[in-house]
Specification:
CATH topology of the largest domain in chain A: Rossmann fold
Structural class of chain A: alpha/beta
Largest sheet of chain A: 7 strands, mixed
Number of domains of chain A: 2
Structural class of chain B: alpha/beta
Number of strands of chain A: 14
Distance between the termini of chain B: 48 Å
CATH superfamily of the largest domain in chain A: Thiamin diphosphate (ThDP)-binding fold, Pyr/PP domains
Order of helices and strands of chain A: EHEHEHEHHEHEHEEEEHEEHEHEHH
Largest interface: A-B, 44 and 47 residues
Oligomer: heterodimer
Radius of gyration of chain A: 19 Å
Number of helices of chain B: 11
Strand content of chain B: 5-15%
Shape of chain A: globular
CATH superfamily of chain B: Thiamin diphosphate (ThDP)-binding fold, Pyr/PP domains
CATH topology of chain B: Rossmann fold
Chain lengths: 324, 331
């Protein structure tokens, strides 16, 4: 078994993609130096700075360059260092990348990946801690992937790079240095749009994303001690969203808790709750409960931030509410 | 120098054949857009319709020199660029009418025209939004080992966007062969340039980024053609970026039906005297290439082509209702 971390898995997966396909290039701030979280470590040394392109702090233009390059034959992987800066690139992503195939009547494709990372818990304060993935899920034409582990990075990042559409991969800074063991034979690429059932149970379904997947597993272990068996599902991609897997589970358990680190208000959990109640309203035994962050910016002070970020305790509380 | 612009890309001096091609191109754009206005007012053309009447010399002087595999990115005022780059007039008009035979199957319309086969990689409805695409395209060509230039049109209004500065900086840093063609018509939508910036010329913005630039009379198609030919020759040889600013004037509103109150200050009459078509005819006459009769013939041919395009577009059905869902994602 191979020891790795989430960040190392990103770098290793990018390297494998670049070895396999010379059209794959990496662009972003400090990427040739490995980046602040070492997610591009070693790439410039192996592939040179023509393919691992350090850029100025110009998120909009970098994203636009990737769009133009993707339309002209490359498969660019752009890094936006923090998702908090995505606003700077959003016009390019939303009006450029997402709509090019559609507006051109299918003539153009934009096979690019935008990698970024979000999440709180690192004392980064309000402009370096957000979880803004739901913004991106609202844009037809984009796909949104939220890997929760090194394994999911290895399974999904190659599929994102191979996809003919613009794909945003939102990584988790809190997970970057989490140790993980992957099988020696490696992890095969898996298609986007398939959820993964991480734990089976018949009493309640917990749908959790990114860092909250691990919190949900912890909560499920504690629930099991009390005789409550939770099914834990990681959708892995928000767009496309694997409703059938979630709905099948909810039809069996009759209860659903949705957990993400993003602000609960307007978060993707609201979309999941709406889709599930439309699909299986008469199978529900209790209102769907959402677990997310409060509707305030992320505070700096450790005591305040620790209270702000949802975790296993909040998921447990949510499960108790749906169990009534 | 033998041969015209299209037959011998990169030739620098205009000759009779080249001048006739430019004349024909400008007349095609003029006739097309003059016909668009009533089609728009009678709701047969849909969406914001930005005309470039009076600015045809820039599109003609630039696009007719490019090969199909040399991409052009355009802005919201794209009809002229598209026609000059080779987009079929009937399919262009069908697109503006939202018909199934439009070059984008009726999904994009006038601000999003794309025709990959002719290297017309797209108009944009977001001012300045396409600027970095040209840098990306040129970068891709370089990395794929088939270095070729890219051209992007933008207006003077786009020079005030942040992405303009970001993009010019990247083009300079990477020394990619992008020709930035600014159509400075003095107005950003309804507001004169002087109210938006104290920078007199868009080309002034190139120097701090160490990008070569020229400002030309954008209503003199021969001058646009000559200066762009030089820029293109350098770009094809792998030179770095170049900014070509063309001073011009749109003789119509920002879009068909705009309030137009601001136009009292625009001095249309003075600019009409500098109409690029008339000027080319006078130059051709002086050079002994052709006279006004040749221009009338070119106009007539253009108007015939427009009527054929109208018939083609009106004969095309509206798109299948399943098309939007089918084309939201590439498969």
């Amino acid at each position: 078994m191979a020891e790795t971390t989430y960040a190392a898995a990103v770098a290793a997966t990018l390297a494998a993609a670049m070895r396999a396909d010379e059209r794959v290039v990496v662009l972003g701030e400090d990427v040739a130096l490995g980046g602040p979280y070492l997610t591009t470590k070693g790439l410039a040394e192996e592939f040179g700075t023509a393919r691992v392109v350090n850029t100025p702090i110009s998120e909009a233009a970098i994203c636009g360059v990737a769009i133009g390059a993707a339309q002209s034959g490359l498969r660019p992987v752009v890094e936006v260092m923090f998702i908090d800066f995505i606003g700077l690139a959003l016009d390019q992503l939303v009006n450029g990348a997402a709509k090019a195939h559609f507006m051109s009547g299918g003539q153009l494709c934009v096979p690019m990946v935008l990698r970024t990372q979000g999440g709180a818990g690192q004392r980064g304060a309000a402009q370096h801690s957000q979880s803004l993935e739901s913004w991106l899920t609202h844009v037809p034409g984009l796909k949104v992937v939220v890997p929760a582990s090194a394994r999911e990075v290895a399974a999904l990042l190659p599929s994102a790079i191979a996809d003919p559409n613009p794909v945003v991969v939102v990584e988790s800074k809190a997970l970057y240095f989490r140790h993980e063991t992957l099988p020696d034979e490696g992890v095969s690429p898996e298609p986007l749009g398939r959820a993964r059932v991480l734990r089976q149970g018949d009493d309640v379904t917990i749908v959790a994303t990114s860092k909250m997947v691990h919190e949900a597993i912890e909560a499920a272990a504690r629930l099991s001690e009390d005789g409550v068996e939770a099914e834990v599902i990681d959708p892995r991609t928000l767009v496309p969203f694997d409703l059938p897997t979630v709905a099948d589970s909810v039809r069996r358990t009759g209860r659903l808790v949705v957990a993400h680190e993003a602000v609960q208000h307007g978060g993707f959990g609201a979309e999941i709750a709406a889709e599930v109640q439309e699909a299986c309203f008469y199978d529900l035994d209790a209102p769907i409960v959402r677990v997310g962050a409060p509707f305030t910016p992320v505070p700096l002070s450790p005591s305040l931030e620790d209270a702000y970020v949802p975790g296993a305790a909040e998921i447990l509380d949510g499960v108790r509410r749906v169990l009534g | 120098m033998p041969g015209g612009a299209a037959a011998d890309p990169g030739s620098q001096a205009l000759d009779a054949g080249g001048a006739e091609r430019l004349l024909a191109t400008m007349w095609r754009i003029r006739a097309f857009e003059e016909r668009l206005e009533p089609l728009k007012r009678s709701s047969m053309v849909h969406g914001l319709t930005h005309l470039s009447i009076g600015q045809e010399a820039v599109a003609a002087g630039v696009c007719t020199q490019l090969r199909d595999d040399e991409p052009v990115y355009s802005n919201h005022r794209a009809n002229g660029h598209a026609l000059a780059k080779g987009v079929d007039m009937g399919r262009l008009l069908a697109e503006l009418m939202g018909r199934a035979d439009g070059c984008c199957r009726g999904l994009g319309g006038s601000m999003h025209v794309v025709d990959v086969a002719h290297g017309f990689l797209g108009a944009t409805g977001v001012v300045g939004g396409n600027l970095p695409f040209a840098v990306g395209s040129a970068l891709a060509s370089r990395l794929l080992g088939r270095e070729r230039p890219a051209v992007v049109f933008f207006g003077d209004g786009a020079a005030q966007t942040g992405i303009f500065a970001e993009t010019v900086n990247l083009a300079s840093l990477w020394q990619v062969p992008v020709v930035f063609v600014c159509e400075n018509n003095g107005f950003a939508e309804f507001t004169p340039r002087s109210a938006h910036t104290r920078v007199e010329r868009v080309s002034d913005l190139a120097a701090p980024f160490r990008v070569a630039a020229r400002t030309v009379d954008g209503n003199d198609v021969a001058e646009v053609h000559r200066v762009f030919a030089d820029a293109l020759t350098q770009a094809r040889a792998g030179g770095g970026p170049f900014l070509l600013e063309c001073l011009t004037h749109r003789l119509s509103g920002h879009y068909v039906g705009d309030p137009g109150g601001y136009r009292a200050a625009v001095e249309d009459e003075a600019w009409r005297a500098r109409d690029p078509i008339g000027r080319l005819v006078r130059q051709a006459d002086a050079a002994g290439w052709f006279d006004v009769e040749r221009s009338r013939a070119a106009e007539e041919a253009a108007r015939d082509e427009v009527e054929a395009a109208v018939a083609f577009a009106l004969g095309s059905p509206f798109p299948d209702p399943g098309i939007p869902a089918e084309l939201t994602y590439a498969r």
